[in-house]
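Incident log entry.

Two folding requests arrived from the same account within the same minute. Monitoring flagged them as a possible duplicate submission, but the sequences differ. Recording both here for audit purposes.

Request one:
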Amino acid sequence: MKIRLFIALCSSWLIAAAQEIPSQLSLEEALAYAYTHNNQMINAGQDVRDAYAQKWVTIASGLPQIDGGVDYQNQLKRPVSLLPGEFFGGEPGTFIPVTFGQKQQVSATATLKQQIFNGSYLVGLQAIKTFIEISALSEVKTKIEVQKAVVNAYTNVLAAQESERIIADNIRQLKATAEETQKMWAQGMVEEEALEQIQITLANLENQGRNSSRIVAISRQMLNLLLGVALDQSIALTDDLSKLAAQELLEPVDDAFTAEKNIDYRLGLNVQEQKRLELKLQKSYALPSLNTFVNYNSSAFADTFAFTQSQQQWFDSSILGVNINMPIFSSLGNTAKTKRAKIAYLKAQNNLTLTQKQVLLQWEQAQSAWSLAMDNYHTSGQNLKLAERIEQKNQIKFKEGIASGFELREAQLQLYSAQSAYLQAMLDLINAKTALETLSIND
């Protein structure tokens, strides 16, 4: 009993360890975790497994099939037949009621069926590979979408946390300025309006600070949803937003991009092949099909249920048969279906050409967006440094009575705007690079 308890405890510990949620994650670790635990990724993996199961369903449909059955009948009131009376020495024109057979009957049947030729089955075998490839590529597409979503959510959390920290620092500095201004106003060194300007700015900052806390919480929940963990799960993020942005500037971009590397083009190519096979399948319905079967039957009859006794007599029968089915005339129904399948195939070809053009255009747009994001990143960084210097100069001028409270407030608002713009520029740069990288897939 103790040994069983020990084994059960160990098993529970191993299961818990396997499902343990990490307490901290870098961006790469978050992506790796999401690829395994994200709900969409799990479903995509199930779709691939379902495709392989469907493969065997298709193959098995053309292999030998054996059906068996047992039929038991108890004629509670047997049917009556009328025989001419003269058969039994009676008067002509009279009939004698008789019953045939015994009251109870059991039949056991087994039938072996084998498909010899069927055009649709042969096309189905060819379509298996395409079906599995489409499922696998759909899983890759899901992975790409999850990658973009996780990168976006992860960096949003970092940006929200950094924004919350910056606002808190700004509030502390502004409170100190407000205290100094209060003293200066009490001594008549500044006008009351200067103090009121600072109080307005402080009130707005405190409101932003409360909102930033809510944004951090919501951003974390969004990331947890993508990771496949509980929404209230606490996970520390170990990467730094500025380092991630700087890293995107250094990593090279694939200059040898072609449409064939894109997941949407690859999917379109497989859809085109699928439509071609559907056209071929529709044409195969005009071909004859050939099947064979072997049937074996054993029956027993009795007035009472005695079929399990050894003296019960059983009567065997067997049939070998061949079935040929040849379509002759369908009132042009099959012709219309074939025409529709051909139209669908031509549309798939046209869609593939369109997808190729769209993919190449998306690549150009993504490169342009990345270049713009890099420019904005550098510009916003320079603007932030300038805004910090301007704000510091106005702080000094204000304390010396050279600058007004309005001028100080304008400098502070300019600084806060530059801080926000720099955070957004880092986010845009990371997301633009991710969008560029995910346009192509690695084989």
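Request two (distinct sequence, not a duplicate):
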Amino acid sequence: MRADAAGAMIHWDEIEFKLVSDLIESRFGLVFDMGRDGLLMNQLACRIADLNLGSFTDYYHYLSHHPDRTPELEALAQQITNGESYFFRERHHFTILQEHIAPRHHARSPRDPLRVLSAGCAAGQEAYSIAITLHKAESSLGATAWKVDACDIHPGRLEQARSARYGESSLRSCRDADRRLYFEEDGGSYRLRPAYRNRVRFFPANLTDPAVVEWRRYNVIFCRNVLIYFSDDAFQEAVDQFSRSLLPGGYLFLGHSESLINRRNDFEPVSLGGHIVYRKKEAGPSSVYS
């Protein structure tokens, strides 16, 4: 057994814990191995205590059959997924987007918008970093149309993303000049200016669910520091979704700890600006941006 934050005892054994962890893997594609099972146990104990349940088995039945299981699954998703992000994380990716991908797309298809998806967008920091980057590319190129979509599994994070209001920690990688240019200070927080937030569309999505109807066809997909938490099957399902949604020759940006090398044959690693990104292969001998 283990104590929750209020001191009550939560009873569990390995079989009970596996019931719930297997449900989490089947529902969200998330696995907790290599010592992370203790983290999951603490997070589950909090949810069990909040619902005044007595055991992991009770919680498993709640998630499986209770009339309120859907909002509880949403609360659980927020509890166990890492929503930590900040503007211009892994800044070199945005440099690649601005200096390599946007100009090549504009030269090839000046009338077609560059369509970008931020998958697993948390509270919108990545999606808005993309929008700021494309706004700058638009200015430097004279004109280039663009559209940004962003999705996350948790509705609460999407609400925050739509509000475009952030604290200091989200802006820790922003220079002082960038803060003044892109944000308005408002009561101790920072709100992104309308020119950057109004062209981003947010929608809920589970990355391992092929039934999501709001996926479009994209030139670029960002999914960074998300897949490292996925099981092998969920990893492949998510990348299958990206492959279906990316146009031939389109680019997939992953986090520094994530790789498709020796895992997929529909993507090829390419070097842009001295960094590796993944390009969806075309049927022909060369890709769109070659």
